[in-house]
Specification:
Number of helices: 7
GO cellular component, one term: membrane
Number of strands: 14
Radius of gyration: 33 Å
CATH class of the largest domain: Mainly Beta
Shape: rod-shaped
Structural class: alpha+beta
CATH architecture of the largest domain: Beta Barrel
Helix content: 10-25%
Protein name: OmpA/MotB/Pal peptidoglycan-associating domain protein
Strand order of the largest sheet: 2-3-4-5-6-7-8-9
Distance between the termini: 16 Å
CATH topology of the largest domain: Porin
Number of domains: 2
Strand content: 35-45%
Keywords: Membrane, Signal
Oligomer: single chain
Length: 355
């Protein structure tokens, strides 16, 4: 009985938190890997469709919050139009450190799982290297440059836990220290964002988000509890324990009955709204913890409001609705009895004794 009263008190004292927060992640949480591919073309000085350079890349990243993250990306380019061929399969490699900003979560807040569609901004600096084996390439000394990428990912999340993401990314990449008039437009003319030293790019990518320590593939929302509420609950439990110690054993036996021939684990309980006998989602989640094939006895109770006959019927209805729910889940129900009003602390409950 003591445990039953304490559980009832805990249920009655439960309150909703004033705010929600994202559960703290561990070092290797929220890591993802992806592949991408598409075409790029020099922004100015030629017809875009006549100078498309195919590329393929790899991106590895981590989200530190639902809004902010970092990624390392490297893309290989298989053409270097509109300039003369350098004679290799891979003509250029651009490796970047990118900051990622989930614009959808920034403005709309994080709801506990990724939206089906999100907009993500990416920006960062990188290192570019030109490959080649032609005579012109071998005589050219400036084959490295400082790059900067700016882009937007239009992302679609899918999968049972939104662990997959497909995105379409238009972007622009600058050669910050490129020099006009050189064989490959590379050199060292100072750092600048010059549109004539840039390429526009359209890529599509597929990302897989690895499983986290929280059991999902994404951030998880938790409901923090106020310490003052916890202290108040502990105080209430202590008061109930003292009150129970003063009650005669005959009163306790009105609710708790010995189950002959079997041991009983700690009783479970579900609560009902005043005058109601329907199961809430919280009540169902408690009942779902009872294993299929278990044997139970159920006691329904009601609060003092109303007539004795009405309270008796209401308590029986509560016992019956719990019994029917458990039977449908394959649980063996031995008894389901309504006991009416059972004191001031053990009311509006259904108590389930599991053998």
């Amino acid at each position: 009985m003591k445990k039953l009263v304490l559980l009832a008190a805990a249920a009655l004292m439960t309150v909703s938190a004033s705010a929600q927060t994202v559960q703290e992640s561990k070092t290797f949480d929220n890591i993802y890997v992806g592949v991408n591919g598409g075409v790029a073309t020099k922004t100015t000085g030629h017809a875009w469709l006549k100078g498309l350079d195919p590329n393929a890349g790899l991106r590895i990243g981590r989200w530190f919050t639902p809004v902010v993250g970092l990624a390392v990306e490297s893309n290989a380019y298989f053409s270097n139009k509109p300039y003369a061929s350098t004679g290799t399969i891979v003509r250029f490699l651009n490796t970047s450190l990118l900051g990622t900003l989930n614009v959808s979560n920034w403005f709309g807040g994080y709801t506990g799982e990724p939206r089906s569609f999100e907009v993500i901004a990416v920006a960062g600096l990188g290192w570019g290297h030109l490959f080649g084996n032609t005579a012109e390439y071998k005589s050219f000394k400036q084959v490295n440059n400082l790059t900067s990428k700016l882009g937007l990912d239009f992302a679609f999340n899918f999968g049972s836990q939104k662990q997959w993401q497909f995105y379409v990314e238009p972007s622009i990449a600058y050669g910050l220290n490129d020099k006009s008039g050189t064989p490959y437009n590379m050199g060292n003319s100072g750092i600048q964002y010059n549109i004539n030293h840039s390429y526009v790019q359209l890529n599509g990518g597929l990302i897989y988000k690895f499983a986290n320590s929280n059991g999902t593939h994404n951030f998880k929302i938790v409901t923090p509890r106020d310490q003052s509420e916890i202290d108040a609950l502990n105080s209430q439990i202590s008061d109930l324990r003292n009150e129970l110690a003063k009650k005669p054993k005959e009163v306790i036996k009105e609710v708790v009955k010995e189950v002959p021939g079997a041991s009983v684990v700690n009783p479970l309980f579900v609560t009902f709204a005043q005058g109601k006998s329907n199961l809430t989602s919280e009540a169902k989640s408690v009942l779902d913890n009872i294993a299929k094939g278990s044997t139970v006895q159920i006691v329904g109770t009601s609060s003092p409001e109303g007539s004795s006959s009405l309270n008796k019927k209401l308590s029986q209805d509560r016992a019956n609705v719990v019994a029917n729910y458990l039977k449908n889940k394959g649980v063996n129900v031995e008894q389901a009895n309504g006991k009416g009003v059972q004191g001031t602390t053990s009311n509006r409950l259904a108590v389930i004794y599991v053998k």
